[in-house]
Specification:
285 residues, alpha+beta, Thymidylate Synthase, Chain A, 24% strand
Length: 285
């Protein structure tokens, strides 16, 4: 995916040095867009090897509205190991705080909890729980040309209850009745480490939703705000920029597709994936 490398190159040449919450400076640009036609293959990076099983496991975790990171860990997925519910363990990037955060299994009301169990108030003042993901699928089936099919993770009333305020904070579905497009919004983008996962995760979400409603996945589009590289990632970025993208693989589901909410992380084949070797990028907590 040359588009991804172009974003890295732009940050490297135009990025402004900025301080960050983590204590590690970034090189940052404001505003970028990623776009991919799903008919051209599954958009997982080929300029470094990526673990699709991890991406699929985290997405199932979100789609089921879970918040206990031990569910992920028991399945070999350690993406959320460093974080914990700040209402139970206050955030800090000192070593003692990091240890306490790592030991706390509850992640609070993060992405999937908001997708499946958004708490709101109805006309009578009663607290109601809203399943945004199921609603989106239902609308796509009943009114496929609707421009109101959105799922949001950015709940201002509950940000302090989240292990990490959502970086990718909403997605929208648009359809013509035959194909469906997915557009996501992201406020903060760790481009070397996080963005490749976000691209593959939302591409998988698009395929899952399309298969669930009997449509074809169309375009995947990401609107990116603070797009950055941490200074301790630059060596790996320079290595990746020397590599030539290879042909994208195809992600294939089994013939007996159970639907998005019953789908399991092992229920796919990534055919023709031939990436360059992995590059290890440090994570900033």
């Amino acid at each position: 995916m040359q588009q991804y490398l172009d974003i890295l190159s732009r940050i490297k040449s135009q990025g402004k040095r900025k301080k960050s919450r983590t204590g590690i400076d970034t090189f940052s640009i404001t505003g970028a867009m990623f776009e991919h036609d799903m008919s051209l293959g599954f958009p997982i990076l080929t300029t470094k090897k990526m673990g699709m099983k991890n991406i699929a496991t985290e997405l199932v975790f979100f789609n089921r509205g879970l918040s206990d990171k031990s569910w992920l860990q028991s399945r070999g997925c350690h993406i959320w190991d460093e974080w914990g519910n700040p209402m139970k363990v206050p955030y800090g990037n000192d070593e003692e705080s990091k240890k306490k955060m790592a030991a706390e299994n509850d992640l609070g009301r993060i992405y999937g909890v908001q997708w499946r169990n958004w708490k709101g108030v109805d006309e009578q003042g009663n607290i109601v729980e809203i399943d945004q993901l199921q609603n989106a699928i239902d609308i796509l089936r009943s009114d496929d040309c609707s421009r109101r099919i959105l799922v949001s993770a950015w709940n201002p009333a509950e940000l302090k209850q989240m292990a990490l305020p959502p970086c990718h904070y909403s997605f929208q579905l648009l359809s013509d009745g035959e194909s469906v497009d997915l557009l996501w919004n992201q406020r903060s983008v760790d481009t070397p480490l996080g963005l490749p996962y976000n691209i593959a995760s939302y591409a998988l979400q698009l395929k899952l939703i399309a298969a669930t409603v009997g449509m074809v996945p169309g375009r995947l589009i990401g609107f990116l705000a603070d797009v950055h590289i941490y200074e301790n990632q630059m060596e790996g970025v320079e290595e990746q920029l020397t590599r030539t993208p290879r042909t994208l693989p195809e992600l294939v589901f089994p013939q007996e597709f159970p639907g998005i909410l019953e789908w399991e992380p092992h229920m796919f084949q990534l055919e023709g994936y031939n990436p360059h070797p992995a590059i290890s990028f440090p994570i900033s907590v």
